[in-house]
Records
---
Amino acid sequence: MRILGIETSCDETALAVVEDGRKVLCEFVYSQVEHAEFGGIVPEIASRQQIRKIGPLFQACNEAFPLAPNTIDGIAVTCGPGLVGSLLVGLNFAKGLAYGWELPFLGINHLEGHIFANYLSDDSILSPFICLIVSGGHTMIVKVNDWCDYDVLGSTRDDAAGEAYDKVAKLLGLGYPGGGRIDSLAAGGDPAFHRFPAAKFKTGGYQFSFSGLKTAVAMYLKDKTESFIGDHLADICASFQARVVDMLVSPTISAAKDHQINTVAIGGGVAANSGLRREFERRAAAEKIRVFFPDLKYCTDNGAMIAAAGCYRMQRGERSDFSLTATPYLPLIS
Ligand code: KG4
Ligand code: ZN
């Protein structure tokens, strides 16, 4: 089964054709750069850029892999969560294709796409597993009982981890999005340079909170001179990253142990973080847990993960109808 996957939930326009959920036949991603000067996503610009880019991207895809009703079997498209204007561009594009080509289409939850990035990247991953979804908009621990069968074990109370990276990058003048930039700088810094506080919770469970950490970084920087910050940029990044990594890894490993599950997978843009990958490998080895990360290009938003999830569900006979609409706050389990 060959599925065209369309992803336009935020500031990436992405298309991919995937065969049987794992073989990527072609893929294109356009990442918007227009938000950098505003230090964050401007929804109005995001949706307008989606409209400008989706047509040319479809043409590029068509040149790499001829798209026609007899070369693909269906269309999978992100229908939420995300920015409503951005989502509507991909969703309506998918509906147009499905109608014109008389092909089935299916709406896919973006968060499920991040889980399926692991399915796409490694065919040795088997359910059940614990999945940490860690992106610009979400931070949650999901128990994947089977593909498409989930229990949400915990999530962030405020900011997502990627959001914390982006906000701290902004404080440090590193541009937007700043996760990758902090990650590279952290590689050359001392993680013990400054101890940023960890969030503490009165109730148990697998919880995250990053807004306090972001404030702690802001307070720390307040009385520092520009030259001090410049001299210790790598150390500050490494100290911030060490704290984020610990705040992500510890509850995920605990969730696996508490549920007697010996496989952990990570998904979402922050799963590209080198410090996070290294620490997961170290802690998982110590606990005899297998850990999976998607290929780097499938951590951040892409069309292949949507096609992979779409393929899996369409093989089970699932279809959407033309009344499907974009749902900005679509939960993983509805
Ligand atoms: O999954 P994604 O592309 O979009 C959402 O669904 O939100 O994730 C984007 C987020 C941004 O916050 C970006 O700063 C972060 O992922 N990110 C990283 C790295 N690469 C991307 N954060 C930390 N380290 C990285 N290497
Ligand atoms: Zn995402």
---
Amino acid sequence: MGQGLEQQSREQWKTRSGFMLAAMGSAIGLGNIWKFPYITGENGGAAFIIVYLICIALIGIPIMLAEFAVGRNTQKDAVGSFRELTPGKPWFITGIFGVAAAFFILSFYGVVAGWALSYTTKAMSGDLLAVPADQMADHFVGFISTALSPILWQLLFMAIVIIVVVKGIKQGIEKWNKILMPTLGVLLLILVIRSVTLPGAGEGISFLFSPDFSSLTASAILVALGHAFFSLSLGMGTMITYGSYVPKDVKLPTAAVGISLADTGFALLAGLAIFPAVFAFGMNPGDGPGLIFITLPAVFEMMPFGQFFSVLFFLLISMAALTSAISILEVPVAYFMRKFEWSRKKATWILGIIITLFGIPSSLSLGAWSGFTIGGLGFFDAVDYLASNILLPLGGLLTALFVGWALGKKKSLEIGGLSEASIWGKLWILGLRFVAPVLIIIVMLNALKLI
Ligand code: PHE
């Protein structure tokens, strides 16, 4: 009976487009608008972007399809799906890593999303644009290094995430995504146009599009790969979990390609909105995590109706972060609901609160606790590094090996919705068996300073 109930109560996306939008909502988030521009800036620009695009095509898309396939076939959470496909084997550990990664990532994701929420209200009140452009950096650093205020915004953001996930994702999220994602696209386009038409924008455009491979370091390649996983929401069971709500008639390969293209397009647009302005104002592209909180407000000050756009921009970033955060919380929630037979409400509140508490030291590490470091990194950076550069690639590697080898070619092609005769089927299996694992292993050994 338990089985029957579980089957019955398990949600499904209402429509194909609802699923696509939810998965895009998961993929498109702070990774695209906040993180991609600043890591591109820190790692030398165009050459880094090319490496990133290669990672998306060769590793990201095949693994996204693998995650969808595993989830939809089993209709189970990140851990349960591996158990069902290979009972009695240790593959389920992949899902455990995923749940751990979700825990770490959401902890600091909530901190940054809290900044975006706070900036939304600062933009609304007019306080933000009253700050002179050359003092924006001090303003931002002053804010995030304060002990209490950023934490309160983080708590507010996480409370919203929890409330939405408690209600179940189907109705609210599908509808919100439908409105918010296209609006975010339009706003980014407007910002791109403003940014690329600023006097002195050319330098920023060439920073993005004329590669200088001599500036590319091994660590930059690791960052690109880690970010491909982060941005596509891979390696931690998000797409397995979202895939588990996908109706049978959806074509998974097309979905994986479409979602990856949309995600990459958003990241590139964010770069185009930011770097031309960074150079035009003589700022430093390698400024790190403060880029969108320092540079963009300065751009808004130059724009007609700048305040209006700044409000919408930070509001929509907050919403983009929200749709991603929901998908992250859904990973442990789906797991705990099945494994411990917790209600959705109980799982969401308990896990949400634990994750939020774990995010507090991340916030404090940017100010009061900055003296406390792990391997030379502050707490925030250490958690980000562990999750994005170790756990996500490891989860991706194991997923690739699982679908590429452990399941057997026939079964994999069947659940992925590709035929053995087609070139895409062959490329997918090849990618999962060799290309993705070899590249991920090289990059990870390098990260661990073993090669
Ligand atoms: N992809 C999201 C972003 O770019 C973050 C995320 C990572 C979401 C992992 C889910 C899983 O912001």
